[in-house]
Design a protein that fits this description.
Shape: globular
Strand content: 5-15%
Bound molecules: zinc ion
Number of strands: 7
Order of helices and strands: EEHHHEEEEEHHHHHHH
Radius of gyration: 18 Å
Largest sheet: 5 strands, mixed
Helix content: 40-55%
Strand order of the largest sheet: 1-3-7-6-2
Number of domains: 1
Structural class: alpha/beta
Distance between the termini: 29 Å
């Protein structure tokens, strides 16, 4: 991926220096965060921190009303010369360009999210963000939260190296922001309270596969605009989609696969929906809620 030299976003907020957030005093659980993979997160928690995955999943499953987006001052920018942060800023800028275009074509205006770089823990409107949760989006403050150490986990523990795999992860989280702007997040949250656990899981799978499809739309639009993909890039994103599929994670974690407990979709489904977005570049093609065949 030839990302160097492209525009960088002003919406990156660097919280990596300083106290590390202090555990979120004053922030309630104002909403439910949406991550790259709850099971992935649990797996990481298990592997790195020795936390029981079921506990982690329980914490992430908590509901609540989205909070109002707070007024915010200018973001603390990453230092110049920080290549990893520059990469994230560049990918974020490309999501801004891609979605601004999609929204404009649909007669609407895109409001870009902020992306917070942090280390360890940080306060969010969805409760205290922890690196063990993996990257996530909080609808309550409309921010993507990323501890860049996740990229090492993605590469080494989950077997998904490559900068385009990392870009896919960022695009997936931004896709949850797009779902929030489109009112999809809110509709799904309203439905969640009235359904059984397995129905909630099934709903979550549709949300997540749509986010993968939206990430594919980003890949389509940004490639059209920048022609920055190199040989092997699409494969590395497809590999990441497979590695964080629920079946792959469960097989790695417990040796057995239980489809009714899936929250993000199987490897094949995640690859298929990313490909749908990539091939079509069309939001309508990403209607995972009105399809029989996921
Ligand atoms: Zn997600």
């Amino acid at each position: 991926m030839r990302w160097e030299g492209n525009r960088q976003s002003d919406n990156v907020e660097d919280r990596r220096s300083g106290s590390g957030g202090g555990g979120g005093g004053g922030f309630g659980f104002g909403g439910k965060s949406i991550g790259i993979g709850t099971i992935v997160i649990a797996l990481i928690a298990w592997g790195v921190f020795g936390i029981n995955p079921l506990t982690t999943i329980g914490v992430l499953g908590g509901g609540g009303q989205p909070a109002q987006v707070q007024q915010q001052g200018p973001a603390q920018k990453p230092p110049a010369g920080d290549t990893k942060a520059a990469f994230v800023s560049t990918v974020l800028a490309s999501t801004e360009d891609a979605w601004a275009q999609v929204f404009r074509d649909g007669g609407a205006q895109y409001r870009a999210p902020r992306l917070v770089l942090y280390r360890g823990v940080t306060p969010t409107a969805c409760g205290t963000g922890q690196a063990a949760m993996g990257p996530f989006y909080c609808p309550g403050d409309q921010k993507v939260y990323l501890d860049m150490n996740f990229f090492d986990t993605l590469s080494r523990q989950l077997g998904a190296p490559g900068d385009f795999a990392q870009a896919y992860v960022i695009a997936h989280e931004v896709a949850h922001h797009v779902q929030t702007l489109l009112g999809i997040t809110q509709k799904v949250d309203a439905m969640r309270g009235r359904t059984s656990q397995s129905q909630q899981n099934a709903l979550s799978v549709r949300v997540e596969l749509q986010a993968d499809c939206f990430a594919g739309i980003w890949a389509n639009k940004s490639q059209q605009a920048k022609n920055w993909l190199e040989q092997g890039d699409i494969e590395s994103a497809m590999n990441a989609a497979a590695r964080i599929g629920d079946d792959a994670i469960q097989r790695q974690q417990t040796g057995t696969v239980r489809p009714d407990s899936f929250t993000h979709g199987s490897s094949a489904q995640r690859q298929r929906w990313f490909t749908t977005g990539l091939k079509t570049g069309n939001v309508q093609a990403c209607d995972t809620f009105n399809t029989q065949a996921l």
